[in-house]
Amino acid sequence: MERGPTPDGDDGSPKRAISPVVGVALMIVITVLLSASIAGALFAFSGELEEPNLEAPAENPWADDPLFGPEDPTAGATDVRYRVYFEIEDEDIEGDSLNEIDITVEVGGDMFEDIEQSDIETFDVERAGDSDLDVLGDINDVDTDSDDDESELEIELEGDGYTEPSTEDVIVVIIGGVDNPSTAGTYDLQVELNEDEDEQEGELEIVEEFSGPTVGAGGPMHGPLVASIGRPSV
Fold first, then answer.
1. What are the residues whose beta carbons fall under 8 Å from the beta carbon of 215, sequence distance 6 or more?
2. What integer pLDDT is reported at residue 185 of this predicted model?
3. Which of 18, 25, 225, 227 is 20 to 30 A from 3 via CA?
4. Is the CB of residue 155 less than 8 Å from the CB of residue 173?
5. Where are the domains of the chain?
6. Under 8 Å CB-to-CB from 216, ≥6 apart: which residues?
């Protein structure tokens, strides 16, 4: 008698293959479980990462776009870079040219005593719906004044660099060489365009010690920075 094919199983029984349907189902279950495990691990890891708090003055002194704010708000610090961030709101200036910007801080002494025209590092205009302007070359003169109650800086322009100002235009000026008040506290300030055509009020926050980073020479930093500008915070 001829013998049939040798059984594949160790016990003499033929091997049986897994049903294709069962195999697909197992693959789906394994894939889902692996995906859930990986997603959970990534979520737990991301929760451990600490994002920098750019809204805190200790992290970024220009985070809330102050009307006039220092790069280093430490009391008594000298040769500090400040930034003016002025969004035009008053329609009275429309149709004119920018001839003057006046900064007044209600603090005795002279924050601006050593300021010269060469200390104006940046004078830009971010125009609403138009090309931005570099007005640095239009500066004609820089004057300072002070008494027991106020420190004042006046930047005069030729008037040719920025014509036809419009509401929502933003003026950004970086000024070096400023001396901070010697005492920590909050100081009222005003920034004025063209002698009362647009005047805004804000506050200067000076602290005992500042541990955050400085902005550096890269220019203006924007983002969600130390004082308000008399309007909702850019």
1. 60, 61, 62, 71, 81, 221
2. 94
3. 18
4. yes
5. 10-212+222-234
6. none
